[in-house]
């Protein structure tokens, strides 16, 4: 006979009780550099178009767009800096947890039994700072399900090796 007993929510383990490890503080340099590159490219393009195109109406629109982009850049910069302290992770016996965000805070818990593939990537700046990004893939998704940037290179390698060994043991 089918039964479906109710679970007492008070007895469930709380994610907030887990000791999360913050990503490396130097990773903020990479995050902010990427933000600056994007906004400088867009604003630079608008400046170039503004001076190449001799149209007062376009000049007015471009100036408004540039000012708007500068305001968006400043807001995004502040949100990234303030939210950076929330980028934390924890490796547990059966899963990995990652939290991030300020205005849009999220917690991702990925059980190891769903992991299909693990990768480590390192950009040019990340290599200079000895950092890496760990990407964990599960079945049925078209991208990584969990991406943790700002890990020390040796920590990312250790987690990668641990998960790969776990995957090999399942086969």
Automatic annotation (TrEMBL):
InterPro entries: YdbS-like_PH. Pfam families: bPH_2 (PF03703). Residues 85-163 form the YdbS-like PH domain. Keywords: Membrane, Transmembrane, Transmembrane helix. The chain crosses the membrane at residues 30-49, 61-84. PANTHER family: TRANSMEMBRANE PROTEIN-RELATED (PTHR34473:SF3), UPF0699 TRANSMEMBRANE PROTEIN YDBS (PTHR34473). This is PH domain-containing protein. It comes from Flavivirga aquimarina.
